[in-house]
Amino acid sequence: MGLKQGDVVQELGWDSDVDESLRDAIMDAIDAEMVEDPLEAVDAVLLWWRDDDGDLVDGLVDALRDLGEAGCVWLMTPKVGRAGYVDAADINEASATAGLSLANPVKVSDDWLAQKVVRPRSGRR
């Protein structure tokens, strides 16, 4: 996921179904706890999202609130066949509606899929 020591990671959408070993690996990589309510801009947001969590567009926009300009959102959704699975078409549509760009999914867990969500680059020549 590209997280490194010193990065500040905000975690949103935590619940008892999240992958605790992935959380531990992230905290080991950044050498700190993840934050819920940061005091300054964060380097990344870990957003756990399930199909019944509401409007994904709103969730993505809310995840941008504390994100630094160069930061990214890691959208964590349950894999196909798992409770709370979010269809890839819904993720693509929500990202586009929120004005964001998606990278390819990354396998990070047996039950969860990670997708890097970023602000589109501006000023392309």
- Separation of the first and last Cα atoms: 28 Å
Count of separate DSSP helical elements: 3
Global outline: globular
The SSE string, one letter per element, is EHEHEHEE
Report low-confidence residues grouped into runs of 5 or more. none
Total strands? 5
Strands ordered across the widest β-sheet: 1-2-3-5-4
- Helical content band: 10-25%
Task: Report the major sheet.
Answer: 5 strands, mixed
Decide which structural class fits the backbone.
alpha/beta
Q: Please state the CA-atom Rg, rounded to the nearest Å.
A: 14 Å
- Report mean pLDDT, rounded to a whole number: 94
**Strand proportion:** 25-35%
Describe the structure.
- By secondary structure, this protein is α/β, with parallel strands linked by helices.
- It is built from 3 helices and 5 strands.
- It has helices at 20-30, 56-64, 88-97; strands at residues 9-12, 42-48, 67-78, 101-107, 112-118.
- A 5-stranded mixed beta sheet has the order 1-2-3-5-4, covered by helices on one side.
SSE arrangement:
Layout: E1 9-12, H1 20-30, E2 42-48, H2 56-64, E3 67-78, H3 88-97, E4 101-107, E5 112-118
Parallel strand pairs: 1-2, 2-3
Antiparallel strand pairs: 3-5, 4-5
Could you give a short description of this structure?
The protein contains 3 helices and 5 strands; from the N terminus they run βαβαβαββ. It has helices at residues 20-30, 56-64, 88-97; strands spanning 9-12, 42-48, 67-78, 101-107, 112-118.
Relevant terms:
single chain; 125 residues; alpha/beta; 30% strand
